[in-house]
Design a protein that fits this description.
This protein has 191 residues and is mainly alpha-helical. It has a domain of 133 residues. It is built from six helices and no strands. The protein is extended and about 80 Å long.
Length: 191
């Protein structure tokens, strides 16, 4: 009796999981297609999310300045100034997304430059040639993103869109083929 209930329960769980995978696959596929068709709207949405993050981070710094986490007057002044600067940057990114996108891509570009330099001088335990190739690619990607920020951002959206589309298709195929496998197992059990 317990075995029958376990089988029925696992079949129900399997159906729910299959449905969740199918829904996730469909959402990933649609989000990937939307981002691929509307890259500028996608970039604007990313900048808005980044701006909201900066507003929250700036507000958090201001709260820290006035709640006693910043001991000492100079530290408190530093938290206030940094909080106001981060908050203003977030508001500016939300109000003017193209400028916010420019600053975001510049920050990523400089981070890749620094990563490339760091990889060149960092000790490696593995393949040194591979570390050098990674450093050169990171450095060149940073230069490209700093000099052509909008082109780099559009390429990034295209890459993420492609991953979402492929992931969505794979998840849908898994959900569809899982249905067939589950149906065959149920047919074998009913005999």
């Amino acid at each position: 009796m317990d075995v029958e209930h376990a089988t029925e329960g696992s079949t129900a769980v399997g159906r729910r999981l299959r449905t969740a995978i199918a829904v996730l696959g469909a959402v990933a596929l649609l989000a990937g297609l939307a981002a691929l068709v509307l890259p500028h709207a996608t970039l604007t949405a990313v900048v808005w999310v980044f701006g909201i993050y900066l507003v929250v981070a700036g507000g958090t710094l201001l709260v820290r300045a006035f709640t006693g986490f910043a001991a000492g007057a100079w530290r408190r002044i530093g938290f206030v100034l940094l909080g106001l600067l981060v908050l203003a940057g977030g508001v500016f990114a939300i109000v003017h997304p193209p400028v916010g996108l420019r600053w975001l891509t510049l920050a990523i570009g400089f981070a890749w430059l620094l990563e490339g330099i760091t990889l060149l001088y960092a000790p490696t335990t593995g393949n040194r040639a591979l570390a050098i190739v990674g450093a050169v690619l990171s450095f060149l990607s940073g230069l490209l993103l700093i000099n052509l920020p909008y082109l780099g951002a559009v390429f990034a959206v295209a890459a993420v869109s492609s991953v979402l589309i492929v992931s969505g298709i794979v998840q849908l195929v898994v959900a569809i083929t899982w249905t067939r496998t589950d149906d065959r197992a149920a047919a074998v059990e009913s005999r």
